[in-house]
Amino acid sequence: MARWLLQILIISSLHLSSVSSQQETSFVYESFLDRQNLYLDKSAIVLPSGLLQLTNASEHQMGHAFHKKPIEFSSSGPLSFSTHFVCALVPKPGFEGGHGIVFVLSPSMDFTHAESTRYLGIFNASTNGSSSYHVLAVELDTIWNPDFKDIDHNHVGIDVNSPISVAIASASYYSDMKGSNESINLLSGNPIQVWVDYEGTLLNVSVAPLEVQKPTRPLLSHPINLTELFPNRSSLFAGFSAATGTAISDQYILWWSFSIDRGSLQRLDISKLPEVPHPRAPHKKVSTLIILLPVCLAILVLAVLAGLYFRRRRKPTMEQVVLYLNKNLPLPDFSPYTLGIGTFAPVLVDASSLVVSSASWSLSGPSMSSSSPNHSPYAWQSTDQPWGQTIDTKNSLHIVAEPEKPSPAVKMVTLPAEDPQSNHSSISSQSQENLYLDGSATVLPNGLLQLTNASDHQMAHVFYKDSIELSSSKPLSFSTHFVCALVPQPGVEGGHGMAFVVSPSMDFSHAESTRYLGIFNVSKNGSPSSNVLAVELDTIWNPDFEDIDHNHVGIDVNSPLSVGTASASYYSDIKGKNESINLLSGHPIQVWVDYEDNMLNVSMAPREVQKPSRPLLSQHINLSDIYPNRRLFVGFSAATGTAISYQYVLSWSFSTSRGSLQRFDISRLPEVPHPRAEHKNLSPLFIDLLGFLAIMGLCTLTGMYFFKRGKPTMEQVILYLNQNLPLPDFSPYTVGISNHSSVLIDAASLVASRSCQQEEAGFIYNGFGQAQAGLHLDGAAKILFPDGLLQLTNASTQQMGHAFFKKPFKFDSYEKKLSFSTHFVCALVPKPGADGGHGIAFVVSSSIDFTQADPTQYLGLLNISTNGSPSSQLLAIELDTVESAEFDDIDKNHVGIDIKSLNSVESASASYFSNAKGKNQSIKLLSGDPIQIWVDYEGALLNVTVAPLSIQKPNHPLLSRSINLTDIFPDRKLFFGFSAATGTLVSYQYILGWSFSRSRMLLQSLDFSKLPQIPHPKAKQEQTSPLLIVLLMDSIVDAIDTRLGGQYSVEETVMVLKLGLICTNIVAESRPTMEQVIQYINQNLPLPNFSPGSLGIGVSTPVLLESVFNSRSSLAPSISPPSSHNSMFVTHTITYGDGR
Question: Which residue windows are transmembrane per the record (predicted)?
Fold first, then answer.
C-alpha cells in the first residue's frame, strides 16, 4: 500500500515538474482576467470581460503588456518560436484611427524611454536604429509615415531595432479558396488573427480574419538572425505595445498563445472569445423647435396636396367631356353650393374647340387643313415673309418659331387678360415639309424639334431637305446659328449628346447610337469616305475617343475623335474670361458655327448672352478636300445609350454668307419641357393615417413646447439665485409642478458659453474665449485670455502652431458635389525691428496629425519628403510673407492655393477688388491690421477673397481655381483649421474670428464688435540719458563726485555735460569731430544749442560714467595732473577717455 502511494507521489511530482517547465517555454491566455503572470504599464488594463485593452480612444497614450516570466530559449540549439494572437483595432467614431499595435520580443520590459504616436510605444528619436537597442517587433500600423518609409496607412511590417521596417506589405491574407491575396482593413474594428513563426533564420508573418484558418502562404517572409540580435537569448520577454497620437482608437488583445515549439502551440477556440465593444457616435439632441417646424410644414403640404387631389378628382377627363358632348354620359348634378363650383375665374369656352380627334394629336402636330379645327394657332415663319412660310432660297434657309395669325373662325380657350399668341411659338405642318426627319426625331405640338426622348439606344436625324449648292468658283463658306437644349431624365445619367452635321448625304442608316452620336460606326470610324463634318455637344466622357471630360464641345472630321475640343464654356466680354456652361442643365444654349477661309470657328453662350467676341474653338480645316462636289446637306443628329436625355432644337438659321445670316427673336422661343420625377399615387387610407399621426405628433410637441415655456430661462435662474427677482408663487396643483423626478443641479453648470454656436452644418467663433473644448491645439498655438484671441505663433524662432476644429466633417457619397464656405479674420503682427514670417495657412486635411511637419517655409504642414507626395491629402490657402525660390513664390506678400505641396497651383500678390473704384487695391499682410479671408468651394471651383476689416466682401475673388476635392480626399472626411510657422523670421500670428459652413448660403456672419483686440508689441523705449536729466533739472551738483567738495567750475561742468550729450548723439553724423571737441573745450567754438526734442539727444544707450574728476587713463602721459578747476584738466580728461 505504501509502495503504491509512493508511486502516485512520484508520478504527480513529475507531472508538476513538467507543467512548471512548460510555463517557461509556452503559455496561453484564453482570458486575461488571470493577471498573475501579466505585466501591464501605462494605459494597458484588463476589462471585466477579459479583454486586454492596450489603449483607449484618448490622445497620446501608450500601453504595454508582457508575459512576466522570460522565455527560456536553448543556449545550444537554434532559436525558434511561434505565437498566435487575436487583436482588434476599433476607431473612435468621427476620428482618424491610430497608431497601431506591435508584437514585441525584447530582453527587457522597460520602455519608459519610448514615445507614443508613430514610435508605437517602443522607440524614440534617439534609439531609432541604434545598434545598442535590441528589439524585434511585428507592427500592425494604421498611419502612413514617410519618415519611416511606410507604404500606406494599412500595413504590416517587421521592425529590427528601428521603426523603419526591414519588410513591409499592405495588410492582406492569402485566400486558399480563391488562390489570391485578399485585402484586410486593420481599422475595421473586427477581430484579426496574427501568426508569427520563427525557425532557422526565417521569420514568417501571417494575418487573417477571425473566421479564416491560417493561410498556407505568409504575408511576410524575411531572413533574420535572432542569435546575433539577442546575444543573451536565454532570457527574452514577449508581449505587446500600442500607442495613439492625435489619431486615436481602442486597441485590444482578445487571445494569445506562445510556444518555442510550433507543434505545441495551442489552438484557438473562437467560441470562447470575448465580444469587442464598439463605441457609438454620440447622437445630438434635436431641438423641439427643429422638430416642430418640419412637422408643421409636412401638415401644410399634406393639406395642400389633399386639396389638390380631391379637387382633381372632381374634374372630368377629356374622354368624359367627349361622352358628355355626345350625350353618351349624363352630366352630374350640382348646385351653386357644390364644392368648387362657381368659385373660379370665368373661362370663355367655344364648343367647337372641345372636339377631340385622335388623329390630330399625332407627334407631328395637329393638322392645319381648313376642314379641321385649328388646335395650334402657330406656324414656322420668317421675319420678312407672310405668316406660315419659311425662307427657302438657293443659298440660305431661316426657320424661326413665330405665332401664326389666328383664324377668325377659331375662338381660343383662354383666361381673360391673357394672350397666348405673344409668348410661344410652334411648327406648322407646312414648315415640316422642308425638313427630313428619321429615327426618333419628331416635332412636338408646341413647335419644339425633339431629336430624342428619354429612351435608351435611340438616334435621330433632322436635315433640311434641299441641298445647299456651294459655288465652285468662290471659296467655300457658311454660317449657322441654332438654339438647343439637352434635358436629362430625373435620376438617370444624361447623354450622349447631339451634333450639327454637314454631309453630302442624309442617309445615316449605317450609323450607330450611343457614343457614335448617330453619325459614325465602328467600321467607318476615321474612314476618308465618311465625308462628314460634325460639331458635337458631348455629355459622356469616352477615353477611346480621347474625350477630355463629360461636358465638352468638339469638331469631328470623318471620325468621332475630335480634331479640336474644349470644355463647354463661353467668353464673357463683361468679365474678360471664360465662364463654364453645363450642356446638361436643361436650359437653352446658343451655338454659332462659322466657316470662312479654311477656318472653322465654334462659339456658344446661354440664351440671354449675345454672341461672344472670342470663339470657343478655332480649327484650320479645308472643307474642299472633304466635299469635292460641294453639294451638301445640313442638319442635326443625336443619340442615347444607357445614358438618356431629351434633346431639342428650338430654332435654327443657316446661310452661305455670314453677313446674310438672319437673326431671330430669342424672347419668342418655345418653352422647354422639364420632366419631373414620377410620383406614385398614395392610397387615401395611407394619407389619412399619415395626417392623423402628424396631428398627434404636433399636439404632443406643442404640449412639450408650452411645458418647456413654463420653465425659467438661465438668466431668470441667475436672478433668482442672486435674489434680484422674486420666485413665482405656485402650489402642488400648479401645472407641471412635482410631476417629474428630481434633478441635481450644479451651480457651475449654469454658466452658459455662447462664443461657439455650433450647428449641424457649421460653426462660428466670435473670439475664442470659450472655444478650447471644441478646438485641437498643438505646437505654439494657444488662446490668450481674457480676450479669447487665438495665437498660432509668438515672435520666437523655429515655431509652428496648429488649431483645428476637433470634429471632422463627413461628406457622404450621395452628395455629388462637395462644397463648403469659410470666413475668418486674421492678423500677422511683425516683431519690431525684425523681418516678419513665415505666414498663416487655412488648411483642409484628412488628418490633424502634423508631427512630421517642419516650420519655416513649410508652414507647419509638410516636410521635404512629404512635399508634393501624392499621398499628402492636403489643401491649403497660404498667406505667405516670405519669398522662397524653392516654391516659386512670386513675392514676399502673396496669397496662394496649395494642393499636396507648398508649390502653389495658383497665387497672386495680396490685394482686394475695390467695388467702389472698380479695380484691385494692394493689401499688406504684415501690417499688423486685421484682414478678412473668404474661402468658397462649390461645383469644383475654389474662390479665395481677401479684404481689410472695414471692407465688405468684394464682388470679385482674388484667386479662382477649378479643383476636384473628391480626388484629393477620396474618403470625404475632412478636418478644417489653421497652421502657422516661423523660422529665423518671426511674427505674432493671430486668428480673431472664424465662421464655417457646408453651404455658402448658411454661412453665419462674424460680429466684429465681439472680436478681440490685437496686441501690438512696442519697440523698447530708450532711456533718457542721466546727463540730460541733470541739465533739465538744473541739478549739476548731482553729477559731481562728492570727494571734490566745492573745488570745481560750474561753467566747465555744464560744458562737459553738454559735450557728453553731443558726443553720444544716436545719429552718428551729428557727433562733433575731435578737432571740434578741442575747439569747444578751448572756447574757440560755441557749443551748439539743443533741447530734449533735438534729434538723437539724450536717447543713446546708457554708459557707465566714472567720476569726471576722479578718473585717469593709463594712456595719459606721466605728467603732473593739471588743476581740477582749469580748462586744461577738462581737455586732458576728454582727450584720454576719462570723461566718456
Answer: 289-310, 632-650, 685-707, 974-996
